[in-house]
Each structure stands twice: as C-alpha cells, then as structure tokens.
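Following up on my earlier thread - several people asked me to post the actual chain instead of describing it. Fair enough. Here it is, all 589 residues.
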Amino acid sequence: QQQHEQQQLLHQEAQQQGVQLQEAHGHHSGEEPNFNVDVEHCDVSEAAITALLEANAVAEAQHDYEQAALDQQQQLQQQGQHDDKAQQQQEQQQQKKDGAAVGKGAKAANVEDNKARAAAVKAAMVHAWGGYEKYAWGQDELMPLQKGGKNSFAGMAATMLDGLSTLWLMDLKPQFGHAREWVAANLNFTNIKQGISLFETNIRVVGGLVAAYDLSGDKVFMDKAVELVDLMLPSMNGSSTGIPANTIHLGQPSSRYANSASLAECGSLQLEWTALSERCGNPAYATASQRVFWSIHDVYPDQGLVPTTIDRETVDGAPYFSVGAMADSFYEYLIKLWLLGGQKEDTWRKMWEMAVDDVLDKLVGHTIASNLTYMGISNYGHLQAKQEHLACFFPGNMALGVWTGAVSGEKADRYLEVAKSVARTCYEMYDRMPSGLSPESVNMYESPDKVSEMMPSPAYNILRPESVETFFYLWRITGDEMYREWNWKVFEAFEKHCRVEDGYVGTPDVTRANPEHGDTQQSFFLAETLKYLYLTFSPESVMPLDEWVLNTEAHPFRLPKGIKTISSQAGKGKHHRHWRGIGSFMTSS
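Reply from S.P.:
Thanks for posting it. Predicted structure:
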C-alpha cells in the first residue's frame, strides 16, 4: 500500500509538472505548449521526466519483488517446509541481494531526480537573466511586467554584478562572458555623485566583484573592486570609532551629522574588505573594516547581543535586540570572518558564541498549539513574538558554526537542536500560506488553535533567500533529505506564482491562493535564492563549505587551506557525509 501511494504521488507530480510546463510555454504567449523542450532552458526537462520514470520503475520492481516473496512464502506454507533451515537461509540471502539491487536503483533514481531539479533551477536562472539582458541591461533591477529597468542602487548594474557568481557556478559561461565585457568597458564609479547605501553597495557590488575574481581568476573584477573600495574607504573616517554612516558619498568621509548606524550596515563590510586585502596585498581595507568590530567589542566585551542601532561615537544604543532586520549580517559575519582568517582570530569566534548564547536565552520562544520555535525581538526586555523571514538565515549560520568546530559538546548539541527547530518554523511560514509562499514576517500567538498561532504581518513576499539558505546548510551538514524536499517545495511555489513572461516578481499578499504580482525582480533572487536552491540539488563537490565561505549576498570567497571541521577533526575524511552519525546533535528533528 505504501509503494502504491508513493507511485500515485509520482504520477500526480508528473501531472503537476505538465500543467506548469503548459503555463510556462503557453499561457503568456497564447501558443500551444511545446513538450519537446531543451533540458538547459526550460522548467521541466527531459531529465526530470526520466527521473520520474526511473522512480516508477524502481517502485514497480520493489512491488514485484515483494509479491514474489509473498507467493513463495505461501507456497512454502502449503508444502509444509517452514522448518527447513537451509531453505530459509537461502531465501534470506536472495532477499538481501534483491533488496540491494532495488536500493541501488532507488539511489540512482534519486541522483537523477536531483540532477533534474538542479537543471530546473538553472533554467530559472536563464529565464531571470534573459529578461534582465533584454530589458534592463546595465541597470540595477528588471521590471518584468513593464519590460524595463530601474536604478535602485545608483546605476551600478546591481543585478549584473549580483548574478556573476551564480552564472559561473551554473556553467553559464556565455552569459558570464557578456557581463564581463560590459564590466570591463562600462562600469564606472567616479561619475556617481548621489548618496549611496554603504551596505547594499558592499554586499552586492564589492561582494559580486571579489567573488567573480575568486571563481574566474579574471583580474578585471579585482581591479574594479579596488577602484570602488578606494572610493568607499574615506567613509570610515567620519568618527573616532571608525563606524561609518549608513549612507555615504563616494570619496568623502561619512557625515558627522549622521549620529547613528545600524548594526548590519557597519558590521557587514568585514568579509568583503578582508578578502580584497588578501587578494590585492593592501591591508588598509581589512584594517578599516575590522576596526568596526574591535570598537563594538571594546564596548561590549562580555555581551553577545548588541543594540540594533548604535551611536557612531559611543557605540551605545537602546536595548532593542534582534537577528533580523538591521542586525542580521553582523552576527553572520563574526563566524565567517573567523573562517576567512583560517580560524585564527578567536575574538570573532567568541563574539559569535556569546551572541548565539544570548539569542537562545533572550530571543527564543515557543507556541502552544504546535510548539513552534521562533527567534523574536527583545524590545526593552520584552520579547516580541515575531519571526522575521530575514532572521531565518540564523539557523543555517548556527549549523555552520557547529560544523566548523566553533563550539562542541552539549553546547553544539543544543545549537543544532534549536537551529533545526527554528528552520521548521521558517518552513511552516511557507507551508501554511495558501500560496505556498512565505510572508515577510509572522506574529506568533499563544493560541491553542494551530490556524491562529502564526499570522502574516506584513503579508508580502519579495523572493527572499534566507529560508532556502538555512535549508541548504542543514542539508549539507546533517544530510537529512527533508531539507532538500523543503527547498524544492519553495522553488515550486516561486515557479507557480512568481514566474512571469520575462522574469520573476514578488507578490503583495501570500495569503491569497492566486496572489497578484509586483513588478521588481530583486537582484538577490539571482545572487542568493537561485544559488542556494541550485547548490541544494548539486553534488557536494560544488562549493564545498570547507573551501568557500559565502557572504550575506551568497557571493563565495575562497577560504585558506586547512579549515578544520567536525569531519577533519574526527579523522573521518574531508566531507560531512562521513560523520553524519557522530554525536547526538547529528540526528534529525
């Protein structure tokens, strides 16, 4: 019966994919759907269909084997040979052989299924990039419905630079080469006179350029990164602490009239600038960016959570603590800077550990109906029961810290247990919505009613990556296939509701079964969301986590050799698949 149910689900999935294919190729153009589709440039590939057929074949083989075993058992009962010990042993041996063959077939089908899923994500990238190339080339963001573009980041071609590392990883070299030509000939920062976001410029533009250099070795990307950071560097000189303002003007010190800075704005430079220093040989970038961390450490040496908004001179701030908006990537970069430095500067590791301890003590809450675990907001000592989608990155960051040995023993057990519990809540933010898309955040209520314990506030979705990021890390680190399935369901929801004729857009209301469309294709959808989805279904040799660290925009920087992980310290080999069973914290929730 179980095999029959699984086969029915497979047939339903095939039918659903057929409907999606029809929508993708017929709905917008008015043409009949074309089922003879190119594997590299469509949502439903021949590989996907092949994987489904192979899975059906495996299920049928398993069913036939079980039926044969049942028939044989009945025959033996009729012949009165139950006590024939030799015959039983022979049957058991044959069963093991047949079962092994079926298991091998199932594993092969699973591999092919993941190949098909990776191909589907790659096709989504081709679709998103194609719209940008056609209607918004050289601009910051695509507006797919208007078939145009807009400059949200001073016209620095944010989508192009954000997409470079994803293009390279997906082996989309023609598109990468086209972008490289534009960067070399047209990317110019000296003509930007308006105020720009220090944070967004750094994580998208600087991060994209440094990662493109690390991946391709093409010096044009590093030269452009140096050119830009040289113009950003004076902004670090506007305060005695080295903490810059949120908005800067290239080539100028930060305004002294901007008294405050958000924690994420000033605390998300360190990875990109340190990587750039190591590659070009100029320590000024690493020194200036890490000075911010040292200034924060000096004021809060024994405190993990730091106020979300801090004074640029005193580093004081109101007791408002979060790992979501305006704070998130500061905590993310503590552990990642420790890794980028070869796990040598223990101050960053300790700051991260204290922060996670504070999160578990002050920000974690639980609902009554489903016992959902969330990471809320502490506002003057009061826990606001709110799970931001932006904070859904944090479970993955915790898991990365556990895997790289930042903590051990019972503390590592607890970190991973909480990480998996919060990840479950982040998945429920998708699964409980009629559209299958997550809202920007949810308010959590102490209600005995499952329906009312999680309420969207606000209800829009803009293709954010934080949940698929965490599911990717938990898949890589625990090996639990559940996280792959979660990411596939999220991807299917994006395909169903967010894909339009010339790209992907968000929606203002995920509580509707057929939500309306926005008209912005966010650059981070290409940089982060699609990259994490693609990596989830790719072999582990693609972007090994002991060789690369990803910035908060998912741009990969090469790590120094010799990064220690749980696997290497246990002497079990390089990759996590050798140690998934070690320790209680490796079990699935």
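Residues 72 and 78 are 10 Å apart (CA to CA). That should answer part of your original question.
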